[in-house]
Amino acid sequence: MKELSLPASRKDTGWLRAGDLVFLTGEVVTARDQAHLRLAELLRKGKDPPLNLKDGALYHCGPLAKREGREWRILSAGPTT
What we know:
By secondary structure, this protein is of the alpha/beta class. The protein has a single domain, classed as fumarase (Alpha-Beta Barrel), CATH 3.20.130. The chain has helices at 10-13, 33-44; strands at residues 2-5, 22-25, 28-31, 57-68, 71-79. The longest helix has 12 residues, at 33-44.
């Protein structure tokens, strides 16, 4: 397995190939369909996203969450199509 620390530039990731298994260290942002649409719309309007995505990892992910009082607890998360 290969290792990669985030944030990582294109120079840091140029060796990656489709199908590689990679152990990531650092912050990974998760988002689903609506979040991707909102980010694309902000970029089209020339506005900055609400978080810094530069050199980061964005995981298209569908979480299974449970509300516990006023907070949400993530039980599992997996890729979606």
